[in-house]
Design brief:
Blueprint: E1 8-9, E2 22-23, E3 29-30, E4 35-36, H1 37-42, H2 51-58, E5 65-66, H3 69-74, H4 79-88, H5 91-95, H6 99-105, H7 112-120, H8 129-139
Parallel strand pairs: 1-3, 4-5
Antiparallel strand pairs: 2-3
């Protein structure tokens, strides 16, 4: 990846932990992921702001959130919901899904989109991976 010109990676997933970015053995800056929506749903965490999130997101450090567009669009309420949707569509139908079809599978109750929107509305400072890499490079 370094030979291809990549400078930053974000592939290490934690369980709501904030690990500082580090340079891994190939020379890439690794920015660990604190919350990945699929893993969060798989672990059956609540879709409400809770004490563990409060502790995790108010402590010092960088948090990376990975949000899959389909989880967000469908407002997935639990991991099995998306699995059921995927199993009900052919690959072609999945790839050609239109707004009407998406509206038909969208969860109407509280789901991961609501949770992420609530989390982001709490005023935490946000940055892109590119901004984190640039800041890290300028500090070196």
């Amino acid at each position: 990846m370094v030979r291809a010109g990549m400078r930053v990676s974000s592939n290490v997933c934690t369980d709501l932990e904030a690990l500082p970015p580090f340079v891994e053995r190939s020379g890439l800056l690794e920015v660990p992921i604190s919350l990945e929506d699929g893993g969060y749903l798989l672990r059956k965490y609540p879709l409400e702001y809770h004490d563990r999130l409060e502790a995790a997101f108010t402590a010092a450090g960088t948090r990376v959130l990975v949000i899959h567009p389909m989880h967000f669009a469908v407002n997935t309420p639990h991991f099995g919901y998306m699995k059921e949707i995927k199993q009900s569509f052919s690959r072609e139908a999945w790839n050609e899904m239109n707004r009407q079809t998406l509206d038909g599978v969208r969860w109407r109750g509280r789901g991961i989109r609501d949770f992420i929107e609530d989390l982001l509305s709490r005023g935490f400072e946000t940055s892109t991976l590119g901004q984190i890499a640039q800041q890290r490079t300028s500090l070196a």
